[in-house]
Amino acid sequence: MKALLIVDVQKDFLPGGALAVKDGDKIIPVINKLQEKFDFILATQDWHPANHKSFAANHPGKKTGEVIKLGGTDQMLWPVHCVQESEGAQFAKDLKRDKWNKVFKKGLNPLVDSYSGFFDNKKKEDTGLTAYLHEHNISDVYVTGLAADYCVKFTVLDALKEGFDAYLISDATRAVNLSPDDYDESLKEMSKSGAEVISSAAVSF
């Protein structure tokens, strides 16, 4: 069975948001159209407490884009975003949600960031996504959302490590692009790891 997984299509990641992804809003019509092709749809939602240690604002003297050690692991510092219950943490207004089976919240532990929809960045806390997919006999995961070079990429890589066939839908994602080629490099890394990179037009069952 196949599932569509929509990663973090939230207001703070859209143009005008706290951590805006350029043209992030352009993927919403693509994802909405894709949803018509799937009977099983899941989503992830960044859901940080305000004191999250990945926020530059919680480290006096530090700036967004700096890398620090957080619990022994390299951590990029981000602007405050997707704080629990905030407007920026809500899903995009135009994103259809009527067919969704479940939403998996991530990033709740203030001491560790969580890019992947499966685990935190230290692989110590599990969102329950793997077990849920197995419970519903899902073998193929089609991944969309924001952003290609962070949460989408790590979700795809973990899907592969957890034994699922993973597909990255290239026109249903955009990248932060801290470096100009991050989008392309991310797609190469996912493909090299075993994911199939396809366009939304190629999704047909």
Automatic annotation (TrEMBL):
A Pfam short name: Isochorismatase
Any single GO BP term: pyridine nucleotide biosynthetic process
Entry-linked InterPro entries: Isochorismatase-like_dom, Isochorismatase-like_sf, Isochorismatase_Nicotinamidase
Ranges for domain Isochorismatase-like: 3-201
Record GO terms (molecular function): metal ion binding; nicotinamidase activity
Gene3D superfamilies: Isochorismatase-like (3.40.50.850)
Family, as annotated: Belongs to the isochorismatase family.
Name by which UniProt lists this protein: Nicotinamidase
Organism of this sequence: Echinicola soli
